[in-house]
Fold:
Amino acid sequence: MIQIAIVEDEEIYVKQLTEYIRKYQTERGRSIKVTVFGDGEDITENYSGGFDIILMDIQMRFMDGMTAAEKIRQMDQKVIIMFITNMIQYAVRGYEVDAMDYVVKPVEYFSFSQKLDKAVGRMRSEVKEFLTIPIGEGVVKIDIADIYFIEGQRHNVI
Structure:
């Protein structure tokens, strides 16, 4: 199952993106779970690293998408971030957070589905199993293939 987060403060775009994802799911025969956040602050507050793709608006009320993406990157290097915005001037800054793409508002289904195909393709090329471990300031996603051994001491795993 593909886990997608939509981080958008305008209800009209939340509805549109959700509909587009449902249509994409039906057309491509994929299983997709969508979680919606109304602001960058909402997704970063208790970020658990469980998303494959994050569709992020840039201009939001409390925490803008670029700041949220920077915070997410500190905790999760693997998640695919796509900005859904009308603020093209941030495109260069998107490279700093390794954003995969930009979708310009108003969003059209055809270009959205093409960019989602690209994101899913990137996920498939990196099909790996991860272990998500909570740490002091967030979470760490570890590729299971990178684990050589696990040591246990009493009730702690090292």
